[in-house]
Design goal:
18 helices; elongated; single chain; 3 domains
């Protein structure tokens, strides 16, 4: 590189994006385009940054494979910031292979962290765990070590292992201080603060109690029968019955758990599960069918007994109590709001990918939230993105996609 591009690269390394642009702002050769793209990304001009990086990658010749791979890695990081998650990861995988083959370990590790963070965003925890296991922590510079430790902490929190999460966050804090990157240190501080905020609400015996993540972990280890409205299922210890794809059965399980140790009235169950105020014999017959299905699913953990007014939930084995675990915010769109709470502008396609839902389902939910003033959109058509204000006062880790124990 010539003296100007070298000076620009040094400025970017210290976070001086404006200083870097002063050296290469008027140049259109591939190295200058790449540096301009990185500088624009640091300044928050992500769409412009992506365009510049693509032009730079196209401009590098056949014998400049490493430079082109670095542009692909930088573009992948910009796409991550833009929440453009629908693209194929093959390009990034090819760039990693090129960087490994040419001995550029630092950028190869950086690329692997980008792939890991993408897997976390879309809820592919097994892929993220595998990517984290492949990282050589000793070879990471402080900034990347902090990012890797943050990812490790998030993986631990999503599987409700708070002690390993605290240890990973302590490593992240130390690495962030060594990196001297204020934004990274602030991200670590926010992650540590989330451990002390309410993550769910416990309902049992007619009382509601906010719970931190470590308290949720302790509750699940206590042997109680937990009807988990955050993850949509029923748990006793390590036994887990998922009902996320069976909304009527989960609604019935939650209603029975809320009525425990008493029973739930038939008409109340019909109104809640089938959303009707005038039950007839067809609704009562349907209730018997759905209760039968629920009874079969819960047989290893609890009995569903018929009573004179309705039905009652009776835990079996060593489960001493029945507890309902509610999310910190109400509504069917809680997971959608939890994704938007990170402050990034999400596309509908990225939200659908992360939630495992159809784009049409996500669009309807966003329209309802927009009418209620809880989200807003910017741009139109393919450029439309969705934003929401931060959800202060509690942590949303239990509402994130695929927030289930790793197996």
């Amino acid at each position: 590189m010539d003296s100007l591009t070298t000076a620009a690269a040094r400025a970017l390394a210290t976070g001086d994006a404006v200083g870097a642009l002063k050296h290469v702002a008027l140049r259109d050769d591939p190295p200058a385009l790449a540096l301009r793209g990185i500088a624009m990304a640091q300044l928050g001009e992500l769409v412009r940054a992506r365009d510049l990086l693509r032009r730079a990658a196209r401009g590098f010749g056949r014998h400049e494979a490493v430079a082109r791979a670095r542009c692909v890695v930088a573009e992948a990081e910009v796409a991550l910031a833009l929440r453009d998650l629908g693209g194929s990861p093959r390009g990034l995988a090819a760039a990693i292979a090129t960087l490994d083959a040419r001995g550029d370990r630092a950028n190869a590790l950086h690329a692997r962290l980008i792939a890991l963070r993408r897997s976390l965003l879309i809820g592919r925890l097994a892929d993220a765990q595998a990517a984290l296991a492949d990282l050589d922590g000793a070879a990471l510079p402080p900034a990347l070590h902090a990012v890797a430790a943050l990812a490790q902490a998030e993986l631990a929190l999503r599987s409700l292992r708070t002690a390993p999460a605290r240890a990973a966050l302590a490593q992240a804090q130390q690495a962030a201080l060594q990196s001297r990157v204020p934004a990274l240190a602030a991200e670590v501080a926010e992650a540590r603060a989330a451990l002390d905020r309410p993550a769910a609400r416990r309902i049992g015996g007619g009382h509601e109690q906010p719970l931190r993540l470590d308290e949720v972990e302790a509750l699940q280890a206590s042997g109680a029968l937990v009807v988990d409205a955050c993850r949509r299922g029923v748990r006793v210890g390590d036994a887990w019955i998922a009902l996320a794809r069976r909304p009527i059965l989960f609604t019935l399980a939650q209603a029975l758990a809320e009525a425990w140790p008493g029973d739930a009235d038939r008409n109340a169950l019909i109104a809640r599960a089938f959303r009707t105020r005038r039950p007839d014999e067809t609704h009562r017959a349907r209730l018997r069918v759905e209760v039968g299905r629920l009874r079969a699913l819960l047989a290893p953990l609890a009995r569903v007994e018929a009573t004179a007014p309705g039905f009652a939930l009776r835990p079996i084995g060593e489960a001493p109590v029945v507890v309902v675990l509610l999310p910190p915010i109400d509504g069917d769109a809680a997971s959608l709001l939890a994704l938007l709470a990170d402050g990034a502008a999400w596309s509908t396609s990225a939200l659908a990918l992360a939630l495992g839902e159809s784009q049409r389902t996500v669009q309807r939910a966003l329209a309802d939230l927009q009418a209620a003033g809880r989200v807003r959109s910017v741009g139109r058509a393919r450029a439309q993105r969705w934003l929401a204000p931060p959800l202060a006062g509690f942590t949303t880790i239990l509402l994130l996609p695929a927030a289930l124990p790793l197996t």
